[in-house]
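Entry for magnesium ion complex. Fields follow.
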Amino acid sequence: MIEILNPTLLARARDTGALVADILQALKERSRVGTNLLDIDRWAKKMILEAGATSCYVDYAPSFGRGPFGHYICTGVNDAVLHGRPYDYTLTDGDLLTLDLAVSRGGVAADAAISFLVGAARPAESVALIGATERALAAGIAAARPGARVGDVSHAIGTVLREAGYQVNTEYGGHGIGSTMHQDPHVANTGRPGRGYTLRPGLLLALEPWVMADTAQLVTDADGWTLRSATGCRTAHSEHTIAITEDGAEILTLPGHARP
Ligand code: MG
């Protein structure tokens, strides 16, 4: 199913997007050396519920996961890149942490992810990984405008990732979003320009480039959810929810995004 939002729903999407961005920013600021992943989950739960929003994750039970996710945020440390299930782990200096959050409010969902380094250490490989996903996300957003095809967005993302020296995994990528978190169209992190669904105003997309330092292969953790790099190498993931507008794309999950 592909949803095209009317102006009323688009206003709600802005509201939900701003909430996701604000929660992620607050959690980033609180994630320090010594912070436990279960603390981050607890803080996320509190902020979501206090905002009158609903977690898209806690009861989420898709075919690729084992039962309901049972947590309010995805926390991926170092080799954990997608669907990282919070567990009893205390962050140390130089850990590469990915926080991925999707919530729904007013009947519209928004989804975003950030990767950053904890503490003071700045390992060069990790800085490069994070930078590549951020640049790929920016390129995908720049390519997302009315009349463009999904393949144009995928191609823009994939080109940046490959030019940065990374392989691209196409099992998991971006997606349409609206009344539910995961909808069509699928937006792979590489693709052929001029192919696929034609973007139009009112469409919401969650674009989410992610990479692993030296592999394209994932392994599933013993928790049945967390996807890690097959080689144990570090990983990064950046995601925004955007709305296609008459002029291009509006990023809904920027911190401090102006509420109408
Ligand atoms: Mg997503």
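NOTE: Residues 111, 175, 206, 208, 239 surround magnesium ion (CB under 6 Å).
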